[in-house]
Structure formats: C-alpha cells, structure tokens
Amino acid sequence: MPDNRHPILDETALTAEQQTAFDAIAGSKRGLVQGPLRVWLQSPKLADRAQALGAFCRYDTQLPPRISELAILVTGAFWASGFEWAVHAPIALQEGLAAPIIEDIRCRKIPTFTADDEAAVYAFAQELHQTHQISDSTYAAVVAHFGVQGAVELVGILGYYTLISMTINTFNVPLPDGEDDPF
Prior knowledge:
It is built from eight helices and no strands. The protein has helices spanning 16-26, 36-40, 44-60, 65-78, 82-94, 99-106, 116-131, 136-170. The two termini are 22 Å apart.
C-alpha cells in the first residue's frame, strides 16, 4: 500500500520558490536535500526559513559538535525518529561521542558519562523533553560549561531537532537506504 503521507518531491517540476529553497539547502554545508527537508519543500517558505535555522543549529553555534550531536541524539531518541537517528548516530561517533553513550541513549538507558559537559547537556535535554522545564541546578550546570549563550543555543538545537523529528514521524519519512529502524 503506498504511503500517502510522504510527499514525493519531483526535482524536475519545482516551483520558483521551491527551487530557491532547494538550492539554498543543496548549497549549504549539508549538500543534500533529504528526509524532512524534502517534506518541507511542500511549503517553500517554511523550508527556506527552517533550513537556515537548521544550518545555524548544526554548524554555527558555539557548542562543540560532539555536544550538539549529543543533544540531537537525545531528541531523536525521545521522538523515536529513525531517520534522524540513522543520520546523526554516525556523526556523533565521528565527533567523539563514545559508542556506549550512543547505544544507551538509543536504548533509553541513562548513560555513564566521563565528561561533565556531556552529563550536563544530557540532563538538560532529557529534563526539557520530559518535564518541559529546566531546574535551576540543571540550568546552572549548562551555563557553567557554555554560558548563557550556549544555553540559548542548546534550546535552539533541541527545538529545531524536535521540529525535524516531528516532521519525520508525521510524514513517515523513510530511513536512508540500507538502514534498519533503530527503535
């Protein structure tokens, strides 16, 4: 049975607005227009604005890539977003996040951290996703490592990848070729 939720994007028949957004995505550090970004192109203005936010959240925050990827994985696991996990788990490993931590997050176990900054970001991400609030002590731990700017950017990453995960789950974005559902 065909999946009527996952819109097919015909790259040969894009509107002018879609083409502009497509080109902005393809010309970014991402280089690929895949997964939820293809869904967003059904609304070119959303695609354009969301991809710009995503480029900032992924490549331009003050947070080290290892920390950003940790936040992305916590969000992907919270939403059981298979596409997001399949794309970002290898990046997290490449950026220095330990394989046992990645696996624990996937299995929804509390990881054992040796790095205090990772423990602080994990606690922050989990707490915000689970309780929709941040306690003073959790906030203080993140600010101690990354400052207020880092805390703001961390919330941006968590929010952006929530949008990504919601898009993946709503529109049944398929896993990349050859990938099994991690959840």
